[in-house]
Model the fold of this input.
Amino acid sequence: MPTARDPERASHPIQVVARRTGLSTYVLRAWEHRYNAVAPARSASGRRLYSDADVERLTLLQSATRAGRRIGEVASLAREDLVEMCLADSFFRASAPAIPIVDSAPPEVDQHLRTCLEAIRQMNPFALEAALYNASVAVSVQALLENVMCPLLHAIGHECRHGDMRISEEHMASAIIRSFLGTLKLNGRVPRHSELTVVVTTPAGQRHELGALMAAVTAANEGWNAIYLGADLPADEIAAAAFRTGARAVAVSITYPDSDPQLVSELRRLRRQIGFAVVLLVGGGGASTYRRLFEEIGALRLENLIALRDALGKLSAST
Done:
């Protein structure tokens, strides 16, 4: 007869906990070090081992932060208080009208955005790196990307176009953000299934990669095996990577320019190379002018990261 499992017995490695809670290993470590959210045991080799009680607590904390609460305000709460809080939040969400998270960012998320912009204006890469780190431990990956990173990139682009930000400031910010997103992806969730692979890149001539990198982080956070190839890749190479990895989808980001004949040719060639068994996802600020092309080649245009998550969710359900 099976015996009851001891909830305090530490047996779960960090990758399992990341999968169960939806938190990246990056955030798990940060919540432990900075907020003492949990205190995992250590194996003989020094690896973190979490108990069932740890997993439950982290799941409750994840729920609380998704509801808009700051991790620093809830990390020290007792289990009973967390349960009561999460139940109340759940009841409110069920009874309230649905509001997209991108339109309802908590005030502290706006503060993270302002802090990042101020660090860029001061040409202070260390302050920008710290601001991004602080944001990553305060909110979920989804909220970080949609409510901090996307508005931040839009603000940088707007200020550059209007002469309010120097090119050197933009380049500094891009370098720090690229490194930060790369770390975020590497510390993302463990893929749920080996067949859930998506290749992410930008087509030849498209050198702005931060949108594609955010798409890769989003896919990884949704449990996909996100193969990020960098920027400015010819159609033949994208297709070769898709076939070699057995990708279910290819996601490309387009930023500029409008009505580019080279881009049209590259996307047509990419569709011919990968066939229609592989889903072609296209996003980015420059994608809106290519609607007819997307209809022609059977590509799915994505307005934002929320649309990407929805598309990946549907693909995952059909796999």
About this structure: The CA atoms of residues 112 and 135 lie 6 Å apart. Residues 1-5, 94-104 have pLDDT under 50 and may be disordered. The chain has 14 helices and eight strands. The domain at 197-318 is CATH 3.40.50.280 (Rossmann fold).
